[in-house]
Every structure is written in structure tokens, then in C-alpha cells.
Amino acid sequence: MGSRSRNLLCKSSSSTLLFLSPSSTSAQLRFNSFTPSKRRSMATQPSSSASSPTTNDTASPSPSPSPSSAIDFLSLCHRLKTTKRAGWVKRDIKGPESISDHMYRMGLMALIAPDIPGIDRDKCIKMAIVHDIAEAIVGDITPSDGVPKAEKSRKEREALEHMCKLLGAESRAKEMSELWNEYEENSTPEAKIVKDFDKVEMILQALEYENEQGRDLEEFFQSTAGKLQTEMGKAWALEIASRRRKEG
Question: Catalytic activity, per the record (predicted)?
Fold first, then answer.
């Protein structure tokens, strides 16, 4: 979710300048315990021939961003901290959460969720961090904006591609892109879980605003009705609904 339209000037990896215009508004399940062999390593694994001399002096793509590319990327991501979620802005919520606020609590959801056999917890945490990252450029496009789903996806995909080029590190950018696409396509069990986290975080936030600001935000609860895909997501949503009835 986002707020106002603005033109964003981004520096590409080729030193050209790119103007991008953001949108106007823009089960019981159980997580697997992980062993390092089941996780993607944080460091590049040496090849079996690493100690052998080679006649090919061509450098392989760097797995990590340069300091310059890292800071460029992180500076662009700053907009995730300052852009408020559009749904709350449109309802005149005081001090609405930012896109970054939303993604951070989703990451915590993945961290504290019960173990689920066959589910990669680390992937869920990473996916929660990445799923709205393109909104740093396009802003938060909501259903009320009238933007077709395919067009919204196209805009966000183009923004993500730009951010990956800005980052420069091939393996990091590839992982980020794969996580985003997996979420967007709802193609894996992890994506389905994180999709539920997205909805559960929203209705929890709605409940908090109702309690803090005396608002009726029923439309947000209605928007998620029947759309949760996992037993855990449904159970958490039922707990929120139960608390809402008691506090209402």
C-alpha cells in the first residue's frame, strides 16, 4: 500500500539514469527443523577444483554486491520505510504503518510459526521480506485503484528487475527474484503460507487500529474471508476474530 504519485530517479548499474513513475496510490501445519545441509548457504561453497590451477582467468560473477551497489540498493529500499500502506491512508488512519512495518511483522510471523513438515522456514522469512519490495518504486497499488491485476504484476516485475540490476550481485539478485516470483505465482507451500501471513498481518493491524482509534474497519476483515489457504493461517485469523468480538 502507498500514498502519493511521485517520479523516482534511480541510478542503473550502467550509470544511466532511469525515471520510474510510481502508481498514484499506489495446520495444524508444522515447520521443519533445519540442518545446515537443508538451507541455502550464506557463503559461496568452494568448488572441488578450487585448489587446482586454471588457465581461465575470467572472473566469475560476484555472489555479493559491492559496497557501492549495496548502499544504492538499500537507499532505494528506504522508501519502504517512508511509504505508508495505502489502505490505511485512504481510511484516514492516524500514523499508519509503512510497507516496511508490514513486511517486518510478516517476517516475525514466519520466525515464530509452528513447525511444518516439508516447509523451509528460512525461505518463508526471506519471502516475507521480499514480497512487497518492488513497492519501493511503484508504491502500494490497492484494488480500489482500479489497476488490472496483470498490469500491477507487470509494473512490479519491471521494478524488481531494476532493483536486481542495481544490486548487481548475481546470486543475491537471482534469489530475490526467485522468491518474489514464487510468492507472486503462489506456486509453493511456502508461498501459500506467506500469502496467509500477508492477510493475517493486515487484519491484526486492523484490529489494533479499531482498538486504538475507535474505528470500524470491517471491510478489511471481509476482504480476507474465505481466502486463507492454510490451517495455520485460518487458526490465527480465528484467534484475531475472537479477540475482536470480545473487545468490541
Answer: a 2'-deoxyribonucleoside 5'-phosphate + H2O = a 2'-deoxyribonucleoside + phosphate
